[in-house]
Amino acid sequence: MSTLSDTPARYGPISKWLHWGMALLFAAQFVSAALRWWLPRDHAVRDFFWSYHTDLGVALLLLVLLRGAWGLMNIKNRPSVHDGLIGRLATVGHLAIYALMVVVPLIRVIAAAGSDRGLSFFGLRIFPAQQPEITWLTSFSEWHGELGWILALLIVGHITMAVGWHHLIKRDGSLQRMTR
Ligand code: HEM
Ligand code: HEM
To answer: Nearest ligand to the C-alpha of residue 38?
Structure first.
């Protein structure tokens, strides 16, 4: 295994870059969603932040697939999860975060494929506009926002556990495995 790979003692540089880079991008994505919900229509700040939501969302979908593939390639060398109930909950929590990181953008991309606007990714047309809309495809968007907010809650729980429980209370070095 190369120095880029994970080891049982710590996550390697690729896993770390993916984790922290995507954490920043997810923060930007949730800011755009929160302002869309919070500010009135036609508000300049809302429009500015909303303007990148689709491109960033599709980019995050591609990044999570890359991260999942890299995680699977490293599965035998990754730092082991903690023992006991907390450890099992952490594994379930990480898996739930992974699942939602895929499902949330994927269902919106599927819905866009059937919509009257289609889908472009940084100016590149992926799906043409549909006239009339393909309603069984557009119906996939119904859960996008709700599942997105559930993902946000899981992430808040994840950060609370990583910083509050592991770093400040147990002081077990878990945080350092992702930072060193
Ligand atoms: C991981 C990536 C994504 C996250 C975390 C996310 C999150 C969210 C959230 C929380 C909302 C609800 C906003 C509100 O309450 O007003 C929302 C709405 C929306 N998102 Fe995303 N999103 C992501 C990816 C995408 C992608 C890839 C697309 C387009 C292909 C997209 C298009 C939309 C649209 C059009 C809405 C408005 C409501 C709807 O039509 O469903 N999002 N997103
Ligand atoms: C301040 C923000 C964050 C902190 C302090 C943090 C901390 C950590 C730490 C310490 C680990 C390693 C856990 C272990 O070895 O047991 C980890 C793993 C993980 N984190 Fe975070 N995290 C943050 C943000 C995020 C965000 C925004 C996401 C998802 C969008 C996320 C998803 C994950 C996942 C899925 C893992 C499992 C390892 C992997 O496959 O990447 N984290 N995090």
So the answer is: 1
What ligand 2 atom has the least distance to the C-alpha of 179?
A: 10
C-alpha of residue 13 to centroid of ligand 2, in Å = 14
> What b/e string do you get for 117-140 counting C-beta neighbours within 10 Å, with b at 16 or more?
eebebeeeeebeebeeeeeebbeb
| Residue tagged 């790979």 (tokens) | 5
Write the residue with the smallest CA distance to atom 2 of ligand 1: 57
**pTM for the predicted model, two decimal places:** 0.95
Neighbours of 26 (CB within 10 A): 19
pLDDT digits (tens, 9 = 90+) for 73-109: 999 999 987 778 888 999 999 999 999 999 999 999 9
Distance (angstroms) between ligand 1 centre and the Cα of 16 equals: 26
Domains of the chain: 13-179 (1.20.950)
